Amino acid sequence: MEYYLVKWKGWPDSTNTWEPLQNLKCPLLLQQFSNDKRNYLSQVKKGKAITPKDNNKTLKPAVAEYIVKKAKQRIALQRWQDELNRRKNHKGMIFVENTVDLEGPPSDFYYINEYKPAPGISLVNEATFGCSCMDCFFDKCCPAEAGVLLAYNKNQQIKIPPGTPIYECNSRCQCGPDCPNRIVQKGTQYSLCIFRTSNGRGWGVKTLVKIKRMSFVMEYVGEVITSEEAERRGQLYDNKGITYLFDLDYESDEFTVDAARYGNVSHFVNHSCDPNLQVFNVFIDNLDTRLPRIALFSTRTINAGEELTFDYQMKGSGDISSDSIDHSPAKKRVRTVCKCGAVTCRGYLN
């Protein structure tokens, strides 16, 4: 008869018991146990057939250790997923998945929904004026007041070229929440999954639903710091081979967004030299041109299950950052190898 060692929920390990299969009313856990055992053995054998002598009546310690670690990881990732969904303020759900290794939730990451100003930096999130349109799609609305075109068509798709700023209606506008010029401020509408990549790129993000081309997908948020502080942190991040700094250089180069410790789902979006997301500068309640919000829009139709990527060197102006081209010895920056696999890959992230 088969016996299983059971860890009882809410009780210490000292109360674990061995139970026969007939006592276990948990088909999902048993299926996960079987899958974890099979996955581990397939990794160890690397395709070799398991001989009869390998089928011992007891699990080898290494197999048992892996199954326990995998179970603990699954619980930790579920708790993290629940926390992310409690903290988010948008419609789309967040899922977490790791079928690759035993990596658990990041230990030093805090989910936020909007910019977090560093000490000494003030973010004025109150517009000084708003529109009084009857229909923002046809009337002279906020974009016209700023000297630019309305960014969206009637299908809520972006119609302006990269590099053109988006001016959405704000809290002082008299239009309602269904205004066609309120897109980015409503947050992510799609259910997304943070997943562990299988080719050494760490965590990534994939969509669980189809996304139409030119649609708003997510905002890039983080800690707003000065460019001087960004230069200091950049040296540290380069040495670690990580990249989370996004320069707010729409009109000046005073501030940078650092999503290393504070961020949203965009923290986990990987780089690609041939991305399916495009960067746009957005102004809503804060009209300070030094501090645009950063929105990511789809460049093409993205199918369910497809990974989301953007070019880490892409600026809100639509240009490639000069840092990706100018690598003079004076910079003395450690270069991070790109693993995007695109045909047009530049070879490095920075």
From TrEMBL:
Keywords linked to the UniProt accession: Cell cycle, Centromere, Chromatin regulator, Chromosome, Differentiation, Metal-binding, Methyltransferase, Nucleus, Repressor, S-adenosyl-L-methionine, Transcription, Transcription regulation, Transferase, Zinc
One cellular component (GO) term of this entry: chromosome, centromeric region
Pfam family, one: Chromo
Binding site for Zn(2+) 1: C131, C133, C136, C141
Annotated residues for binding of Zn(2+) 2: C131, C142, C169, C173
Catalytic activity: L-lysyl(9)-[histone H3] + 3 S-adenosyl-L-methionine = N(6),N(6),N(6)-trimethyl-L-lysyl(9)-[histone H3] + 3 S-adenosyl-L-homocysteine + 3 H(+)
Domain Post-SET: 334-350
Domain of life: Eukaryota
Residues engaged in binding Zn(2+) 4: C273, C338, C340, C345
Family that this chain belongs to: Belongs to the class V-like SAM-binding methyltransferase superfamily. Histone-lysine methyltransferase family. Suvar3-9 subfamily.
The name this protein goes by in its record: Histone-lysine N-methyltransferase
Phylogenetic classification of the source organism: Eukaryota, Metazoa, Chordata, Craniata, Vertebrata
